[in-house]
Amino acid sequence: QLPFSVKPDHKLTVKDVIDILRYPGPGGSICTSYTQEAAVFQLRNWLPPEIGCIYWRASAEPCCSVLIPWYLGIIETPESYYRPVDIKEQLRLSHHFNPPPGTFDYDPKLAWWTFRRLQSLVNENRKARIKRVREVWDSFEAKEFVDQPSIEEEALRLYSKDKDLARKFLTDYSKGLALKAVEVANELICELTAGPQTGIEGLGVEPGRNSERAKHLRPFRNYPNPFSSETTITYKVLRACKVRISIYTPTGQLVRTLVEGEYPPGSYSVVWDGRDDKGQKLASGLYLCRVSAGDYRAAWKMTLIR
User: Fold this and answer.
1) Rounded percentage of the chain residues whose pLDDT exceeds 70
2) Residue 188: enclosing H or E segment and its boundaries?
3) What domains, with CATH codes, occur in the chain?
4) Does residue 213 surpass a pLDDT of 80?
5) Residue 198's pLDDT is what?
6) What is the pLDDT of residues 79-92, one digit of tens each?
7) Of the four, 92, 207, 289, 305, which is 20 to 30 A from 193 by CA?
């Protein structure tokens, strides 16, 4: 049982408090693999509230995620970090115990689901994956702490002339970090799901031809899987090529072509709603997602549950 509060025997930095959340101590861990989110509040009364108050927030378990500094003075967040809601309604107990339908449905456009997917991948093989993930996020956070003094110095300079300019500056900074974190999370997802250089784990892989994979495409697989209404396949084209993504039954019958065409380098995603090419709902069961890009071929299992 944790105490309501504690008094440290020495001054703690924000990094110290984050580490307390992130790593086990003598009394055990505060955050576990079931933790949904984590936050640290940095409050400094010698600075204007817009600059001195920071909400450091991780959108998943802090061991698998990164804490982003959201300044009190920001005027907006990226669209991928929120859903428009009625605040008064959301604060009602009835909303908490009986949320409206769809509140927790998977939405590939929301950053929360990206970080949750990364957390799930780490927890599938934590011993093998956590070190790499922490290397990336530790480097990300280290830069945040190094940049913080200069960011706040510039914000103070602007604040002395125009508070709105300072708030715009802090907004751009926090939003930029938040969007970059999602990009890095997707890169980690790609790395963790790509498998060995000879192919991707799954059905229908052609290992002999996949030596070209690094030249053409990195599939991120689909999420969620299993799924009930829709699932999103995310992939990254490394070199311009023709990409085809199709859905088949286990017997080899083509039921849906999701992607077919020439694609320039970049990150893409496509949603499959569990329907065939005629728009008819398919029955629950196992399906295969087959991907081709240049000479690269791979396939994996997807489970539809109605």
Assistant:
1) 89
2) helix 163-193
3) 14-194 (no CATH), 217-304 (2.60.40.1930)
4) no
5) 27
6) 888 877 777 887 78
7) 305
